[in-house]
Amino acid sequence: MAAAARRAASLLPLLLSSPSRARLPHRQALTLTPPLLRPHRLYSRSPKPSSSAAFSASASASNGAPAGRARELHLYNTKSRRKELFQPRVPGGEVGMYVCGVTPYDDSHIGHARAYVAFDVLYRYLRYSDHKVRYVRNFTDIDDKIIARANQLGEDPFSLSKRYSDDFLSDMANLHCLPPSVEPRVSDHIDQIINMIKQILHNGCAYAIGGDVYFSVENFPEYGELSGRKLDDNRAGERVAVDERKKNPADFALWKSAKDGEPCWDSPWGPGRPGWHIECSAMSAHYLGHSFDIHGGGEDLIFPHHENEIAQSRAACCDSSINYWIHNGFVNVNSQKMSKSLGNFVTIRKVTELYHPLALRMFLLGTHYRSLINYTIEQLNVASDRLYYTYQTLQDCEESCQQHQSKAGDPLPVNTTNCIQKLHDEFETSMSDDLHTSVALAAISEPLKVMNDLLHTRKGKKQEKRLESLSAMEEKIRMVLSVLGLLPSSYYEALQQLREKALIRASMTEEQVLQKIEERTSARKAKQYEKSDEIRKELAAVGLALMDGPDGTTWRPSVPLSEQGVVARFIYWSNRS
């Protein structure tokens, strides 16, 4: 039964992935695990080189991965509406990346998780490709929504935004999103915002009325080039404020005059606060310059936010230019748009009460970042099961190799080097093609199956250089997981956390499960096989699978019995293809 379960689980890494499996040769790579996520080593291994070039050279002799340059990265540019070769503005210099951050007035939701996991992967892959990156992600800590929520709760707006900002950062850390280089807040950059507005006014692209300042879209002929919209599409009341004083209904606020009870700052136009769009133009210019490499955010920001950013930035500095506009797709919940009005608004914290945060990350990475993703409990269960299988295999590998010290220069069996080479090729090919994380995840399925054969089958245990092969494959999978942000500090700890979450979902304690196992064991000894099956099915129904082995019966988290038809159908069609 245990072997059958492993075979079924080995197919789970494909469930959330694209069927496309392109393959081209590529180099070995550097693991980029941040200090707080540094893997816990259970056995001796020579230290990793500090640069990817050195790692490529040393690795090629041991595991078959070729030395050489990384595959060229292509990214889909919203502005050009096509995939383009990524070429840094300054060759060999620092890549500048700005991603629009949250407006912290409530708990962060899975749409936020989708966006910031996607750009975390881009950040990691750029670093993996030996780029230095300055990553800026802001907090909009003063906004109409924050003010309204603070008034509702009777709380200071800055206190409320600080509280939700801290919660957001905690959520991001749990999802293994690396901290950006800079995380500026609007309230700390009022001077930069005022100076940019003054420059836009000086250049004739804005006008002041009664303490408010508006951008004049008619004075910026290129308006609409990002979104493809025409000025006639921007009717008042549809994403633009209704104000009869505006020269054009599509004109938008750069500065809002103060209202009673709202935070405000002094300005040349009187007390007030910034409009939404100007903040990102001012902060990106302050930290990255008027021209930089990548600007990112959700698809919903293309218009009006990013369209307005382009207009403001160019109106303030005619040389302003951003090379790549990158946007992630939307999140649906059970095939419906997520919204509070529909009652299907899902926060990150609500998910992670029942599931490991990396199961949510695994689920998100199972769909290409630009595609619509449909959140369902069934798919999250599959992702959680897939994660458990991956970590269990790697944990078994560590335990087997704990006391093993491989000899430098010893060649690995050809089938091992071929397996590692194939994983390397598929990983870099998929990631360099606009970050196809689903294909990269699918690529680890075959090596995990090979590792399980080496660990648990009679034939595998007899293979030449078995432990060396296991160690080399674990190292390569570790690299892939690190770049994808799925590498835990300890496989053992992650497995324990996954088990704890499974027990919470099942509304059971470990002691209750062990009691059920004892009852089933007694029933089997008494040849009460019907009762034995009932206990097994009872636990399977709540996502707890029993595993019978030579040393007795254990349990592991699994996809609940009622949802296993999803897996069965997938296996059936996979075998037919």
UniProtKB/TrEMBL annotation:
HAMAP family registered for this protein in UniProt: Cys_tRNA_synth
Main location: mitochondrion
Localization in the cell: Mitochondrion; Plastid, Chloroplast
InterPro entries xref list: Cys-tRNA-ligase (IPR015803), Cys-tRNA-synt_Ia_DALR (IPR015273), Cys-tRNA/MSH_ligase (IPR024909), CysS_C (IPR056411), Rossmann-like_a/b/a_fold (IPR014729), tRNA-synt_1_cat_dom (IPR032678), tRNAsynth_Ia_anticodon-bd (IPR009080)
Residue spans of biased composition, Low complexity class: 44-68
Region described as Disordered: spans on this chain: 38-69
Function according to Swiss-Prot or TrEMBL: Nuclear genome-encoded factor required for normal assembly of chloroplast polysomes.
Listed name of the protein: cysteine--tRNA ligase
Molecular-function GO term, any one: ATP binding
UniProt source species: Oryza punctata (Red rice)
This enzyme's EC code(s): 6.1.1.16
